[in-house]
Here is the input.
Amino acid sequence: MNVHSIDRKRVTQTISHVNLHYPRAQDGEAAAVLLETAGLIRTQEMQLQQGGTFYRFTTNAHALNQPDNIVYLSPLPQAAADLFAAARQGLGIGTAKEHPAVAAYATAHAADPEFDFHVGFLLDSLDYLEERFLALQALEANDPRFAGRLKFLVNRALPGDAEIDARLDASPVYRGIARTTYGRNGVQAFCETDLLVDGPLGGGLVLEFDYIFPGHDDHIMAVSDGAR
Ligand SMILES: [Fe+2]
Here is the structure.
């Protein structure tokens, strides 16, 4: 078949699913509560023979059975856990002979939570983004399952739009924040957790939450003009 005979614009291609993992069988419910608190909808769960629970979530509240916008969640498979453990041992992580690449990676990651693999969600309500982000912070503060396991960082919109600036000055999440997005007319919020282990070496994963202020062609996820 000649693939070029099909008009690309008549085909819809979306991201179907992301497959995430929690570290130990007993972390499953906490990881599931974390995703629910982040706004995802738990649509299925089943016990696995090898231990732990398999979960299906969707971001689509209007069509729970749609085959896209899915997040799967299950325990890290043993072979993957063994590989990560061997890699961490080989790098001497936590020892006096730790490979210098480890500290350099940690520094880069602390400065920019987006610099390697992460999962981003786009919301069309800043009120909801704020509500969910505050709920995640409350989990970390009040629920022992999450104490010390969630880290937070936010990027405010670049200043210059009076309406956006005023909205963010009144925001429980964004007021007083100096960090900004690279692009314009949007905000970002990040939650890093070690309840999900799909980062390099089985480390934590960053979840990102984005909001774009309506009515702007130039926004944080727009095609860049190359000048920034
Ligand atoms: Fe991102």
About this structure: The first strand starts at residue 17 and ends at 22. The beta strands are 17-22, 41-47, 53-58, 70-75, 119-123, 150-155, 186-193, 205-212. The two ends are 41 Å apart (CA to CA). The helical segments are 28-37, 78-90, 100-111, 126-142, 162-169.
